């Protein structure tokens, strides 16, 4: 009897099971799911935009209500501004040289190689200088701010500040925001200056452009407003970098992977915002 029961179980197990066929998904069903996914992405984007706007508003309120200590601001300005000068100066120099190399043959074809300085100087003053300094600041400083604050978030140091009665935004965000806002004009001027020097050096001493006409044409075509325009834009770049980096650090996901994502997303979003603001 045991052998018969086992044989019957084996026979039943070999019988294929019949599953009910799923109804085919229609075109409108797939379209509705796509619209729903798009709606979710849109709502998440609007929610993130509102959240970062409130974060920026709290930063501005605390900046007006109570300034941080002088030694805190000085240390932050040193870390953000002074230690960023070498990379900004080096990058600006080579950008000016690259502009000279790329534009020399085109200008020479029209017999206008002595006007290379106009193109290089205007490009550095109005566009490349501010964008270059902001990009370097976002890559070197913005990622570091996001990683530092993200580590403080996952190790509960920010929660400890709140439990002791200190406001984390006033203690951690405001010094970094003020440092980025105050130091990026100096970095922008350094990028402009080194780009002009690098482009002029390469044109005069490497490409053999006449120095007198190169300098004269540059002085006649570049005005103070061009310099002021580039420096003025840099304030908005610095504010955007500080807010985005601090926001990403404050809202960091748990774990080492969360810190890495916060640092990466802070640089990517800062760079996109820099390009969008530069269009204005």
Can you summarize this structure?
34% of the residues are buried. The protein has ten helices and no strands. The protein is an all-alpha fold and 280 residues long.
Describe this structure in words.
- The chain is mainly α and 280 residues long.
- The protein has 10 helices and no strands.
- Helix 9 runs antiparallel to helix 10 (255-278).
- The protein is globular and about 65 Å long.
- How many strand units? 0
H/I helix tally:
10
> Helicity level, as a percent range?
over 70%
- N-to-C SSE string, H for helix and E for strand: HHHHHHHHHH
Mean pLDDT across the residues is 85
Q: Ends: how far apart?
A: 89 Å
* Shape field: globular
Biggest sheet statistics:
none
Which regions contain 5 or more consecutive residues with pLDDT less than 50? 1-6
Amount of beta strand: under 5%
Q: What is the alpha-carbon Rg in Å? A: 29 Å
Which structural class matches the secondary elements? mainly alpha
